Structures are given as C-alpha cells and as structure tokens.
Amino acid sequence: MDAHSTAHQQEQHHPTPGTYAKIGLFLFVLTALEVGLYEGTYGDNAGRLGASLEPFFVPLLLLLSAVKFALVAMYYMHLKNDSKLFSGVFVFPIIIAAVIIVGLIALQAYHWAFAALK
Asked: What is the pTM of this model?
C-alpha cells in the first residue's frame, strides 16, 4: 500500500501534457526571439536599431539560451521532480563551466585592452 501511495504522489507531481505543450510553445517563442534578435541586429534590414543592439547581441542570446536550457532541463529532463542531489550533480558543473568561460572572456578582454595601448 505504501509503494502504491508513493507512486500515486509521484504521478500527481508529473507535468500534464498541457504543461508540456505550454513549455514547447514558450520554447518556440524564445527561439523566434533569438532569430528575430539576429535578424534585427545583423539582417539585411537591420537599420539604426540593429546598430544600437549590437553591443548587447551576445549577452541577450546567452540569456535567451540559458532560459531555454533551464526549461528543458527542469521539465523535459525531469530535474524539477527529481532529488535535489541529482539537480546539484547536474547544475554544479554547469556553474563551474560558466565561471571559467566568464573568466576567460575577462582575461581576453584584458589582453585586448593592453594590446591596444601598445
């Protein structure tokens, strides 16, 4: 009886097909925003708005892709319903990789700044 009630509780916390459809639609909208951001910044008809968006292009794309990644990991990979240990094992290396990447970007910017002074 106890195993049956545990399985029933897990079943209640599982997202419904409607939730998956909403998440899929939201992922589609985020992808459309990414494509629109690219087209608005570097496309044939970019204009002045594209030139003003250019310094924010990469950070905005990274932000949009991070949101998409989080949604896919939480719902489609079922990390939202799993143990916190599994989420930590999955998320901790990603945080380390992000810190390393940001550090390398900062070092490269530092190198370019001093190379320009010479």
From this structure: 0.67
